[in-house]
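Long-time lurker, first post.

We've been arguing in lab meeting about whether pyridoxal-5'-phosphate would sit comfortably in this protein at all. Half the group thinks yes, half thinks no, and nobody has a model to point at. So I'm putting the question to the forum: if I give you the sequence and the SMILES, can you give me back a predicted structure of the complex? Inputs are below. Any interpretation is welcome too.
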Amino acid sequence: MNLMSGLFDPKENALDPYGSIVPPIYQTSNFAFDSVESFRLAFLAEADSTLYTRGNNPSQVLLCQKLAALEKTESCLVFSSGIAAISATICSFLKAGDHVICVKGAYSWTNKLLINILEDFGVSHSFVDGRSMEEIMAAKTDHTRMLILESPNSMYFHLQDIKAACDWAKKNDILTTLDNSYATPLFQNPAELGVDLVTHSISKYIAGHSDVVAGAVMGSKELIDHIFYKGYMTFGAVMSPHDASLILRGLRTLPVRMKRIQETTEKVVDYLVSHEKVSAVHHLGHSSHPQYDLACQQMSGSTGLFSFELQLGTREEAEAFADALEHIRIAVSWGGYESLIIPLVTFWDASAPAEEQHPWNLYRLSIGLEDVKVIIEDLERGFAAI
Ligand SMILES: *Cc1c(COP(=O)(O)O)cnc(C)c1O
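Top reply:
Settle the argument with this. Predicted structure of the protein with pyridoxal-5'-phosphate, as tokens:
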């Protein structure tokens, strides 16, 4: 975890005349210039200037520098949500007639961007099983411009062979994006494996306290500047200076939080794997995961998000398990202090086609920072209720 040194760059307070230990919050919408000439120069290089906070603000810029360093890329832009970062990134490079390949099981609103918005603007897409390079390659048309990866994705934590996918995409002049929210930049650096643009929902582990909604995209300066002048400035989903400051604070503890969460999760997974009522655990840090070897190759750690299936007789029992939990809260999102669960029985719809259904005995769990005993005792309450 030698990244700590990068996160505590002593030069960060050079911004502040008082030498404050914590970077100040620049709560200002705009910035003044001392001459027409310096004002003109700022307009000529707006992506590199602090001119207006829908653009650059020192609080955002400092965060961007840290996030780019963590993802080992040249440049970064931050947004008011993860999906804003994804939408601005994808829309900045596509035009009517283009085709996109996207892995199945990507974040739900990423799918909806392709289906509900881009289709109306003449951009077509194919969803593929990202575990198979053959399926990815077979989906290519003469108009394929972009490959959207998310490794691992949520619910079953399927991986893509990132290097193989990017080598193929490069040869075919296809731009690659990868949603790296699960792994954080500490456990996977997709740009090093060839991904052009890495996106994050900062709302999860990076901010880490369930109190901010934010996103980012990292890549080469050329690609990030292209997004700046297209999707970033025109959609305008910018991050507030105050949120940037909360995230800078979150970053300072990211390595210690991830270490703690990984250790706790391994114990909870071991407990679940050996429980007689558990029929499957989908955690890519466990050797039973079908892509465990690939995970070990392209990732340096696993995190606290996984799913498991219970042996249950009825959907009432599936609800009773979750309702009996006193500590683990039923909620969306993940990556914060508190452990959270999504019981998939919530979304059970008998009329939906079988291939669109998640089994009602499936639960997604996000392990937080609590003592492992508290979490296992709570799961025991759930088991006692079924
Ligand atoms: C939450 C999430 C997003 C969306 O991020 P928001 O910050 O909620 O907009 C995107 N991708 C993944 C994998 C997520 O979990």
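For your lab meeting: The two ends are 41 Å apart (CA to CA). Residues 33 and 40 are 9 Å apart (CA to CA). Whichever side wins, do check it experimentally.
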